[in-house]
Write a structure and sequence with these properties.
791 residues, Alpha-Beta Plaits, DHBP synthase, 11-stranded mixed sheet, 7-stranded mixed sheet, 32% helix, globular
Length: 791
Amino acid sequence: MIERRVILVRGTVQGVGFRPFVYGLAVELGLAGLVRNQTGEVHIEVEGETMQLEEFLRRLRASPPPMAIVDGVSWSVVAPRGVAGFRIEESRGEGIGEIVISADLATCEDCLRELFDPLDRRYRYPFLNCTNCGPRLTIVTGAPYDRQRTTMASFEMCGECRREYEDPGNRRFHAQPTACGGCGPRLRISWERHGNPHPNPLPEYRERGQERDGAGALEEFGRALLDGKIGAIKGLGGYHLACDARRADVVAELRKRKERDEKPFAVMVADAAMAASLGEISNAEAELLQSRRRPIVLVRKREVTSLAEAVAPGNPYLGVMLPYTPVHHLLMRDLGIPLVMTSGNRADEPIAHEDEDAMRRLAGIADVFLTHDRAIQVRCDDSVTRIVLGEESPLRRSRGYAPQPIAVGFEFKQPVLAVGGQLKSTFALGSGRRAMVSHHLGDLDHYAALLAFERDVELYRKLFEFTPAVIAHDLHPDYASTRYAMMLAAELKAKTIAVQHHHAHLASCMAEHGLSGEVIGVIFDGTGLGTDETVWGGEFLVGGYRLFRRGGYLRRVKMPGGERAIREPWRMAAGYLMDAGCECEALRRRVDPAAWRTALKMMDRGFNSPLTSSAGRLFDAVATIAGVRDRVSYEGQAAIELEWAAARGEQEAPTLALPRRTKGGDKNYSFDLSPIDDGFGWEVDTRSLIRGVVEEVAQHTPIGTIANRMHETMAAIVEAVCVRLRKATEINRIVLSGGVFMNRLFTERATGRLTDEGFAVYRQRIVPPNDGGLSLGQLAVAAALIGDEKE
């Protein structure tokens, strides 16, 4: 029997070779019809015998192209037309599906073979790509995804590229960025600083003018790096600053110019073998490194490497990535050395992605610029991730991941925009049963980052034809993202929903795991405004998407100087020491006496000393008392270095507030758990912990041992409170979220204790546990509050 079926396919099905896949499948099965892209979906019409149509549908669902993600397939029967042949039609703007744009993909193996094949017409062409790789999000200007709606629109294809592009049997069929050396983008090198010609520092370079393009640009840039120069290189989503990672003097100069004193740099290496020479890489880490996403992967650093210590000073871990564009592959193959490859910006500004802006902002940092004439439409930093307990644990979700939709177990009754928090900013769009979390945007404390945030929200709204009816934001009224939400809501006449910071963390972890009902949430981070207007951060929450109760928290202490205590953790140490009624002479000797007295007076008088339950600030305080550091040059540095000290110290350490196991098997903890005033939950008394640290310091216990005991104590606290909450609520599911769970050692120990107690433990694997995941949680809470479904 002859039938004709109209099939609609939704998901990540544009820009990933889906139409040529459909064409090939239809031809193989002897089916007639057509396929085309339309807004948010792929439209297919197939005509033939019923058995072949059923096989077509089965294989459509079961074996799509590698980078495609099929979220749904629907079909209906129409009258046969009796036409022969199968064709691919031009895209149309019609359709009712949700628009999905693929993330940028690393150069595939087929393209790499061409890149290094002297007989291939694209030999060493720095912008080759095909349907299976290359830029996507970063070049797109509109939907559906076609060449005229990308930044490749101005490059007219030559005859050979056009033939490949129009041949359904070619892997470059409708590969929108496709080009070759005769018709595509070109590299350009420029020696400039502060807008003026840079004095030529390499005498072997002939006078060819200050700006050159063509085949020699890459070779000249590579020679400059080998000569000790600092270069700016235009990548997929923005500019990198690059230099020889082996040379201490050059790395130190980059730190000076970039105003980045101690925060680790990432390193790009040519291949997995070079990566293994620098770090101890597990199979899971190697798989991540070589994946199409090509993130920066944090691995344990080998004791002896070729790297300058200044690349990651004092850090037992190293951020490593492999090349992910042809330019990177050519550069790394030519040089054969590890390169620092860090974001092209000053301090905490957004990464530069426009050529003129890069020349202006990176002047005085870079000696030489390697750029090209393909515009970047969407700036996108490198993603950063790691493996914890055998699973991926992202720290920054951006290039290669965003804007891949996240399937959620609930439905958005209205379109929702969530604007995230203040730090590690992301925003998210929610519609249907999907959440689309943006790329990483940085800290909105910086005006340039705020402008980038506002620009990219509008860009996503345009790309995805998205008008929110509801805008979710943080409870904190002074966050820049909150102010933006209020402004945009007034403009669009949209409803706003304020979501408490730690509730959003809980909901974020629930949403990515598809959980419903209630859970116990251990939400440990730096700061977030609580419902009682104090600064939360060491929270045990019980609840779900709609509601939560505070089932416990760390004892609140004063935070002298407010946010200044984040940059000067000795202030937090002063707060905890005052609360515990003890002193640390070693710390007092390190801190200016007048500053110390002022901090004590501030706390006595309650001036600019908000109460906080923050776990992040507790880790800071212990790090300071133990002698790790008194001031930081980047957020969380003291706590991070305490973890490093623990990683280098005694591994089998008792806790500071010693948990003891009785003959009956019950655990008895010397730290107190006091009932909260309203009768539900417990306050964790941290004073014995602080006294234990002070005692260890007085006995000259090694910092590594103190750090290990601190981590074990905090894991014991998590276990103790969760066991009590389970008895009170009969809830056995735990979600772990918040920036403190970026601490690998603490996460492993807390998870281990909870698992041993029989809990089902959920950690974040799709979005970061830090504030980069807040927008997903805000979406989930908003969806529950506006929906009709019951948990």
